[in-house]
Every structure is written in structure tokens, then in C-alpha cells.
User: Which sequence fits this backbone?
């Protein structure tokens, strides 16, 4: 009988101990929210989000003269060269859809002084057309010009030198007086009406003078270079 009492006492004591330790554990940890996340990251430092955005989304293209061009083009060509090459591109983009195919590319490259065969023109378009449309847009055309630079004499550069010879006043335009002066220096005789007609033919925007872009266009159209 005494043995039974001792056992029951031990049992009670054990129960009481368990309750006591359980209560202490609940007090230290507190109630657990089942909806709370397991880990909360610290807030980003000022400017950290911007840096992350810039590094994860690098800018490979920029806009110049209203055209989106790659950073490689900006590194290789000046804004003036890009604008003037746009004149050449538009001249050979006969249907004005913003693209040139192999035949148009070959003629444009020839006008710029680059020797390109028919097969080579087809290959350039095939390799250079990033979207696989079989034609080059202006950005791809510029990339092609950069790749071909130094391969042959630059007729484009010769045209610019010719323009500078006519631009006596260094205003970036050729006036009727400039044209008359150039003819006198060269010993060529033209009537005033003939000189006026030359200006009118090249003067696309109708401001009475020939700017650099208009000069390039008339030179390429007449095959004077």
C-alpha cells in the first residue's frame, strides 16, 4: 500500500513539473502568427533600387536626331555623320518604308565609296537583319557602314570637301553668290538664270540656299562623285 502512495505522489509531481515548464516556455516565445513570413529582408539603402535597376536593365540604345541608335554607333560616328547618312539612307529607301534590301544597300554603299558585290549585299542583309525580315533598317545600315569603313576610298568625304569649297562664308550653306564666285574662280561661265536653276533644283526645303544635306543628295543623284 505505501508503495502505491509513493508512486501516485511521483506521478503528480511529474505532472506539475510538466505544466510549470510549459507555462515558462509559452511566456518566453509568445504567440506565433501563422501568416507572418519566415524572414523579413532589411529595407534597401537610399539609391540602391536605382542602381539595381540600371545594372539589371543596361541602356544599349540612345536617341539622336529622332532616331534610336546603338551605343556602338554613337562611339563610331558623330551626330553630323549620323544625320548625313540618314540622307543617304532615305535617298535609296525608294518606297520610304524605313528599310533597304540588297539592291538598295549595294547602290547606297557604292555611293559612299564601298565596293559591294550582289552576293555580298545579300549576305550583309542576311547577317545584319536582326529581326530576320530580309531588309536592313537605318540602325542596321549604320552598323554596316561602320563595318565597311576603311575598305575603300570615301566618296562621302570627298562630297563634304566639295561642299566646303563652295561654302566661302563658312555658314553651312551655299548661296547664289557663293555659286557665282565658284564659277568665276573655275573660269566657268553660266548665266544668272542657269545658276538660279541650279539652286532651285538642289534646294529641297525652299529657303533659297543649299545646305550640306541637300548638297550631298544632289551629288549622289547626279553621280558627280
Assistant:
Amino acid at each position: 500500500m505505501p508503495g502505491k502512495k509513493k508512486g501516485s505522489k511521483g506521478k503528480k509531481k511529474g505532472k506539475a513539473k510538466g505544466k510549470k515548464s510549459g507555462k515558462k516556455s509559452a511566456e518566453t516565445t509568445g504567440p506565433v502568427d501563422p501568416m507572418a513570413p519566415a524572414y523579413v529582408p532589411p529595407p534597401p539603402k537610399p539609391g540602391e533600387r536605382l542602381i539595381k535597376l540600371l545594372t539589371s536593365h543596361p541602356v544599349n540604345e540612345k536617341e539622336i536626331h529622332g532616331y534610336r541608335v546603338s551605343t556602338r554607333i554613337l562611339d563610331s560616328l558623330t551626330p553630323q555623320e549620323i544625320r548625313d547618312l540618314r540622307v543617304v539612307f532615305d535617298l535609296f529607301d525608294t518606297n520610304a518604308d524605313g528599310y533597304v534590301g540588297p539592291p538598295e544597300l549595294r547602290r547606297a554603299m557604292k555611293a559612299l565609296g564601298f565596293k559591294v558585290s550582289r552576293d555580298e549585299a545579300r549576305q550583309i542583309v542576311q547577317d545584319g537583319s536582326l529581326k530576320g525580315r530580309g531588309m536592313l533598317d537605318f540602325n542596321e545600315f549604320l552598323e554596316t557602314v561602320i563595318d565597311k569603313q576603311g575598305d575603300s576610298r570615301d566618296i562621302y568625304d570627298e562630297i563634304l570637301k566639295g561642299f566646303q569649297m563652295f561654302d566661302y562664308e563658312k555658314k553651312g550653306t551655299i548661296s547664289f553668290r557663293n555659286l557665282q564666285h565658284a564659277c568665276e574662280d573655275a573660269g566657268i561661265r553660266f548665266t544668272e538664270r542657269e545658276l538660279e536653276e541650279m539652286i532651285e533644283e538642289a534646294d529641297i526645303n525652299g529657303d533659297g540656299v543649299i545646305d550640306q544635306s541637300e548638297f550631298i543628295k544632289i551629288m549622289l543623284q547626279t553621280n558627280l562623285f
